[in-house]
Amino acid sequence: MPRPIHATISVSALSHNLDVVRRRLDQAAQAVAGRAPSIWAVIKANAYGHGIDAALAGFSAAQGLAMLDLAEAVRCREAGWGGPILLLEGFFQPADLELVDRYHLTTTVHTREQLDMLAQARLSRRVDIMLKLNSGMNRLGFAPDAYSSAYTRAKQLREQGVLGSIGKMMHFACADGPQGVAGPLQVFESVTQGLGSGPISVCNSAATLRYPEIAVTRGDEAHWVRPGICLYGASPFEDQSAEALGLLPAMSLRSEIIGIQDLSVGDEIGYGATFRADRPMRIGVVACGYADGYPRHAGTGTPIVVGGARTRLVGRVSMDMLAVDLTSVPAVGVGTPVSLWGQDGPSVDEVAQAAGTIGYELLCALAPRVPVKRTS
Ligand SMILES: *Cc1c(COP(=O)(O)O)cnc(C)c1O
């Protein structure tokens, strides 16, 4: 028998979350009599740890898929995905363009080097690109004063038959916080104004949920949003839970109690003896540790659900085990189910917060050794 830990991926939760995003965009479009944008469901990092196959099943109603890894993109095509696929970091070397060509991928272009590689490539068809502006995040993209010449270069490549559509793209650094989107959006609008028409893509989850109106199409340019985290049922916001957003957790991490210890006052728990009982306590040992992807920085007090009752983690998380306080949880024994996060557990965002990180990191870091079950 394998250890009792396992993750469940709910395909219906994935589709539900896509629906939540779709409805939000439709409402925003109706409010201004515009057209709702199309959705590139972001499935990078093995669909935020959920698996590409589950994502393909859950996001079949999305217009497109977006990711970084060429192998993941190829897998989507080979699994029969016929819609657009966007490479969020573009391609890295000339040989990648053969795959872009063969599998009909749309690519982000964010450097002059990529334009050079396109100019030298021998391809069987035109490549659709999204030309990326660095609107202030200073991660990927052409600086505002370099963007229009990059765009002109792309247009020349289109005239030469190398490129197909040339879209405009940027990424927000602070859409989830008080700084919001206004500053970078203004940069984007002033830099891209009058350059020529093509698809536009600016919104991640936070911007899509909080500022859906900026993705509403009023003219003839097609807008595309790029939500990721919210599709998996976690929140992009510190001040708003996934539940409050109407999202359902797609990944549930569960295990069982595999040992029980009865402690007297002064007894200590785990490595470093960081927790000491100040009263008689009952402790459960759970088959889940940091080698499963549970964060080691989650300290005493991190919420955890044992046998349906919410309690707390105590002491340090080990590689393969962690300890929970059973003092106020009745009728727990070896084999009692434990919910680490997800459906009927704490939210992944609560666990992340207790560990000083974000839900994204925990979902992506689910360890390969954890068996995954898919439910419809
Ligand atoms: C990861 C990513 C997204 C999705 O971000 P979320 O915060 O998960 O919605 C969108 N666009 C780009 C360029 C990304 O890298």
From TrEMBL:
Record InterPro entries: Ala_racemase, Ala_racemase/Decarboxylase_C, Ala_racemase_C, Ala_racemase_N, Ala_racemase_pyridoxalP-BS, PLP-binding_barrel
EC code(s) of this entry: 5.1.1.1
N6-(pyridoxal phosphate)lysine PTM positions: K44
Pathway: Amino-acid biosynthesis; D-alanine biosynthesis; D-alanine from L-alanine: step 1/1
Protein name: Alanine racemase
Job of this protein: Catalyzes the interconversion of L-alanine and D-alanine. May also act on other amino acids.
Catalytic activity: L-alanine = D-alanine
Gene Ontology biological-process annotations: D-alanine biosynthetic process
Positions annotated as active site in the UniProt record: K44 (proton acceptor), Y271 (proton acceptor)
Entry's family note: Belongs to the alanine racemase family.
Co-factor requirement: pyridoxal 5'-phosphate
Swiss-Prot/TrEMBL keywords: Isomerase, Pyridoxal phosphate
Pfam families on file: Ala_racemase_C (PF00842), Ala_racemase_N (PF01168)
